[in-house]
Amino acid sequence: MKQEITAIVGVLVTIVTAKIHHLFVGNLAQPSAIYALSFDTETFDLKVTKNITATGSHHWITFSNQKTSLYGTSFFTPEISSYSVLKNGTDLRLDKVLQTTKRCGDNDRSAHIVTLQREPQTVYMASWPGRPGCGTVLSTLPNGTLSSVVQSFDYSSAAGIHGLALHPSDSYMYAADTTGDTLWTHVLSNNGTVSKTQRTNVSSIGKGPRHVATHPNGLWLYTLFEGSNTISAFPIDTQTGYLGSPSHRYSLLPGASYKSPINSTPPHDDKYWSAEITISPSNKILWATARAKGNTTDFGYISAFSLDSKGTIIDRLFIVPTTSTGGIANSVSVAPDTDEFVAMTDLKNTGRDEGGWGNGYVQIWQVKGLDGSAPTAKAVAQADIKDGGCCANVIWYD
Ligand SMILES: *[C@@H]1O[C@H](CO)[C@@H](O)[C@H](O)[C@H]1NC(C)=O
Ligand SMILES: *[C@@H]1O[C@H](CO)[C@@H](O)[C@H](O)[C@H]1NC(C)=O
Ligand SMILES: *[C@@H]1O[C@H](CO)[C@@H](O)[C@H](O)[C@H]1NC(C)=O
Ligand SMILES: *[C@@H]1O[C@H](CO)[C@@H](O)[C@H](O)[C@H]1NC(C)=O
Ligand SMILES: *[C@@H]1O[C@H](CO)[C@@H](O)[C@H](O)[C@H]1NC(C)=O
Ligand SMILES: *[C@@H]1O[C@H](CO)[C@@H](O)[C@H](O)[C@H]1NC(C)=O
Question: Which atom of ligand 4 is nearest to the CA of 182?
């Protein structure tokens, strides 16, 4: 009898403390699907809860600022889709598909999208692969649903924009121009449109800037370079939003010296193309990933760097290989409320012609040893989504 009561109490405790997170992941290729997932931090159970029909392959998905809407870029058509987020982040309903062709010609396929956190809630995307590069500014209804294209603007003829990041003041936006080896600083007007643009040639610092992230203190723009497989921290002048010069580059590949001064030629390793950079909720960890080129036996790598209270990069905490070879996504996404868990996606590219886009998955990685000893991370849960198109980026609803 006593044993039974203990067992029941045990079950109740588990239910009370279990924490279920809800996530969404988009597809890089056909079929057009977005998957809803749930992750239990007690049992490490990660599962797909719904296969939701999408309007296209959304290479990037993001939420509106209240998470009432989810926006998806389209890599194969010049359009962007807006969905209502339903049932506590477990379902979606399509509200609108906007055409974005206005000035961008047929290059306006986009790989990234961000949402302004202030009013008027404004959404930004830019063309990838571009050439010429072009940016699009979209307005929303008060409830977050996309409304219309309010501005389109050109970059240079060499530009292909892969990553965007907003400054925490919501006054500036940064664009990582992978093909043009440039970082673009945009000054945003009160109504959200781009009023001024400044160009920073970063070719001496790294090759192929791909994604960018700002520190919440507004003092740093962290830039990941796809071609040189490095990251660097650019100081931001908070009066103008403009970028100063970084002092170091940090490698995302294993090797003896991960840190080097900027006065040397950027490295290049054809076997890898680095992907994603993001900052943890405590602002203490900077995450970055390197993908191995598709159709190889090489593993990708996940790196974590420690940041001090001002946002300066201090040290590489660890670099660990991913669990599969020849992946092409390696998109890390931090949990909204803890440094302990990050989600990561991948997809093995054995060549589209061979129908080889079929081994996609979402993983949850758990970080251990952050209190000092020997920090590291490992995959603790995986949901396989073998539809031939999954997975692009994953986002946490809660
Ligand atoms: C916002 O309002 C529009 C118009 O009433 C509606 O179609 C849409 O579903 C709403 N969006 C959300 C996220 O509730
Ligand atoms: C959403 O969550 C709230 C709070 O936990 C709950 O009361 C509500 O029933 C949930 N709604 C749905 C549709 O699941
Ligand atoms: C937004 O503000 C700018 C600068 O004040 C102005 O030039 C532009 O016409 C405004 N655009 C819209 C759509 O209101
Ligand atoms: C950027 O700088 C490099 C090195 O000085 C130079 O070769 C290149 O032409 C510059 N790019 C542009 C677009 O000005
Ligand atoms: C992948 O590797 C296989 C075996 O070497 C080869 O037959 C195939 O053409 C490669 N696919 C691509 C896209 O490189
Ligand atoms: C999700 O649904 C689509 C459309 O029916 C289908 O093609 C795809 O295989 C499904 N995904 C999974 C993982 O079953």
Answer: 13
